[in-house]
Amino acid sequence: MTRSYLPHTDADRRAMLAAIGVGSTQELFADVPAEVRLDRPLALPAAMAEPELARHMRALAARNASLDEYACFLGAGAYDHYVPSVVDHVIGRSEFYTAYTQYQPEISQGYLQALWEYQSMICEITGMEVANASLYDGGTAMAEAAMTACAATGRSEVVVARTVHPHYRAVLATYAVDRGVTVKEAPFADGTTDAEALGDLVGPATAAVIVQTPNFFGCLEDVAAAAGLAHSAGALLVAAADPVSLGVLEAPGALGADVVVGEGQPLGLSVSFGGPYLGFFATTEKLMRRMPGRIVGQTTDFEGTRGFVLTLQAREQHIRREKATSNICSNEALCALAAAVHLTAVGREGFREVAELCVKKARYACDSLTKLPGCRPAFGAPFFKEFAVRCAKPVAEINAALFSEKIIGGLDLGRYYPDLAGCMLMCVTEKRTRAEIDRLVRTVEAVL
Amino acid sequence: MRKAKALIFEMGQPGRRAIDLPACDVPAPDAADLIPDAFRRRTSAALPEVSQLELVRHYTALSQRNFGVDSGFYPLGSCTMKYNPKINEDACRMSGFAAIHPLQDEATVQGALELVAAMEGYLAEIAGMDAVTMQPAAGAHGELTGLKLIRAYHRHRGENRTKVIVPDSAHGTNPATAAVGGLETVEIKSHPDGAVDLEALRAAVGPDTAALMLTNPSTLGLFEKNIRAVAEIVHAAGGLLYYDGANANAIMGISRPGDMGFDVIHFNLHKTFSTPHGGGGPGSGPVGVKKELIPFLPVPVIAAEGGSYRLDYDRPLSIGKMQSFYGNFGVIVRAYAYILAMGPDGLRAASEDAVLNANYCLSRLKEKFHSPFARFCMHECVLTSKDQKPYGVRTLDIAKRLLDYGYHPPTIYFPLIVEEALMIEPTETESKETLDGFIAAMLRIADEAEEDAAKLKAAPATTVVGRLDEATAARKPVVRWKA
């Protein structure tokens, strides 16, 4: 068995048992009744020494097709953006990653300040007044926003666009079911939410209207119109946004959103098979005390020196127990730190430039693909970094050909929208090179 | 002299940058021409403008103003701040784990699916459960998943059970989770010996009981001796038993919740299985269930057929999805590496040493700090500073003074039912020398409380900031920088 993580020698154990006044460790377990004791070793693989473990982990990792080797045109909620080298170096500093929640602020000033700066940056990019210190991921952030809206309005119905990520809507449905919250889904036309149909669904019972922009199809939604509609019914507008897109797209806060949520993974986190990711949540000062999750606030010590603490804890589970605004305890602090470092790294100019590179490359890929016979745009709406094309051949067949050319192709939209079978959702980030895009187009051409 | 650290927004100069981006290598119009005017951003976000070295120095300076397990002893009760092995960090960063897309063709991620499936099996064995989902992102998220499973189970049987019984010693997340899950909390008082009061439990259960949520060992650091009787009472009333795995570090290989009578359990991988807490996440809160609850597990579940793995979404009774993808995979990789490094004997030894360390601290600290229970503790012990109170010293003062001695303080004022509580969890990865140093500091502080209480009230003296004004922070919240 391993000894490297367990420091005690037999002599240590004997000395400690003597100090306690017992003859063996077993005596310390006297309270565990015989009938609930496990009388055999756990049926688990025998311990591996570090060199064996390293070999085993490498072998398992090697059985996955990594995006370091394959050019990825798959997005749909997880994005292959470039992660600046400094991000992993900072979050790899063990003072950050081996820390606990900042319950003792005097020795956690570094983390508290970094999270406060993260909150500030999220407010800047979303155009909102306050942000929390993170939630689990985009889907849960959206579900929490819906619950916040219900609590704030005293209403129990939310209207969500069908163009919102299907997984987010699935999470919303799971969160809503036991809380008496009804979810209605608004249909789309030509890739964006059908404004008239949305208007018919929103009424005096509506707590929130939820849209995503760019939406699941990559198309830009009219946030201002949705906000106007929500507000005229006394409801809140919840907008889910791709944070990278906010380098070129208007901040939802400037368009009337009451809550802006989203998936923070594109800000410095690897795709990592779906997690850990980062849910961001920003809102208005008015809703601050209804916000779920941890919040860092600025204050001073008794000498007047600036410092930071976890604040507004009266909303939280360890104070209000059954009356808390949510049950969030651990969040995704280290991922929020990564996002702050990422946003610092790209900075004011780079934030816009990354977004511009995405738009340009996605446009080039879309134009090149849709020039091919047998491939046409699925929708006419403007898009950011994702777009859907309808192909004359099955998506699976195209993707198989792409895979043999070291390319991970797009998502078959038929998986989530049967009426869109045969449509492929493509994603082009700033990481994709012209050579990769051209190879994509040549390979698709050969299949069609 | 104490000094504030400059904000990142107070550094740098307009035009500076920390990373260069490649030039656009495709022919394309200006981005402004590709985004219709109505959608275009009017004012750029006021993000920092610093050079790469400024960035690195800023965050390095912040890290130096922060305390982690690698910095020193962290005996934070119920949080299990054990050592985070470095190879786990290497493993999760391997390209084949970090750079795989969650929607990739299943055939191209067989190694990842095999790893997650193996972890489900390992945790099921450790817990004595029949199946495990790795989807929940944290312990509280696991609790919510578990309660939803229980709710779905009852509903499927045509029963509408809406009450969750929670002992007054429970973690604060338990009642909060019940509320978030649309259930009502019924709190029961603990017996004076710290155990569940069986009479109070019998009086509380009924046809509306959905579940009892229990931590065993409890938040008092005590093993629930009557656990089988507790299980019988709850089951006889038609309710289910939920195990809060926050304290599972005491029982690996020694006792299994499934064998105690629990029907649903969550583990905190970031506690028991050595994955770092990250300053408050990411965590991971896998949930294990007995076979009756398997049909309700969140989608997708991993199905294995003929040596290959796939994600099964075709589960008509499923509670649905708990998060966007399949869980905090990067955390799962770390915990998997830990279980393989430890093996069955190592996991059991970890629990034994964790219990040994806690009892050692308890036996030595009892000399100066009051112990509310005359029993052996499990992996953590609860003391109170009741005896220091007459000198005008509160638990908070003791905690702050510990900072000056270079230790992270224990959990304080929890469990709520113990006056002036100090909850110490040393974990198995700490050496006797470390514990002796900590014990000496605690005993010294007890002496200081008698001799020089003012010193404790003014503590900490050595940290980068002094005691902070939390009341003003909450009354007049300043939660962001403004340009």
Automatic annotation (TrEMBL), chain A:
The lineage of its organism: Bacteria, Bacillati, Bacillota, Negativicutes, Acetonemataceae. Keywords: Oxidoreductase. InterPro entries: GcvPA (IPR023010), GDC-P_N (IPR049315), GDC_P (IPR020581), PyrdxlP-dep_Trfase (IPR015424), PyrdxlP-dep_Trfase_major (IPR015421), PyrdxlP-dep_Trfase_small (IPR015422). It comes from Anaeroselena agilis. It catalyses: N(6)-[(R)-lipoyl]-L-lysyl-[glycine-cleavage complex H protein] + glycine + H(+) = N(6)-[(R)-S(8)-aminomethyldihydrolipoyl]-L-lysyl-[glycine-cleavage complex H protein] + CO2. Pfam families: GDC-P. NCBIfam families: PRK00451.1 (NF001696). This is Probable glycine dehydrogenase (decarboxylating) subunit 1. SUPFAM superfamilies: PLP-dependent transferases.
UniProtKB/TrEMBL annotation, chain B:
Transmembrane segments: none annotated. This is Probable glycine dehydrogenase (decarboxylating) subunit 2. It comes from the Bacteria. Residues 350-451 form the Glycine dehydrogenase C-terminal domain. Belongs to the GcvP family. C-terminal subunit subfamily. It holds the Pfam family GcvP2_C. Residues 153-278 form the Aminotransferase class V domain. The glycine cleavage system catalyzes the degradation of glycine. The P protein binds the alpha-amino group of glycine through its pyridoxal phosphate cofactor; CO(2) is released and the remaining methylamine moiety is then transferred to the lipoamide cofactor of the H protein. One of its GO terms (molecular function) is glycine dehydrogenase (decarboxylating) activity. Its EC number is 1.4.4.2. It catalyses: N(6)-[(R)-lipoyl]-L-lysyl-[glycine-cleavage complex H protein] + glycine + H(+) = N(6)-[(R)-S(8)-aminomethyldihydrolipoyl]-L-lysyl-[glycine-cleavage complex H protein] + CO2. Keywords: Oxidoreductase, Pyridoxal phosphate. Its cofactor is pyridoxal 5'-phosphate. The gene is gcvPB. It comes from Anaeroselena agilis. The modification N6-(pyridoxal phosphate)lysine is found at residue 271. NCBIfam families: PRK04366.1 (NF003346). InterPro entries: Aminotrans_V_dom, GcvPB, GDC-P_C, GDC_P, PyrdxlP-dep_Trfase, PyrdxlP-dep_Trfase_major, PyrdxlP-dep_Trfase_small. The glycine cleavage system is composed of four proteins: P, T, L and H. In this organism, the P 'protein' is a heterodimer of two subunits.
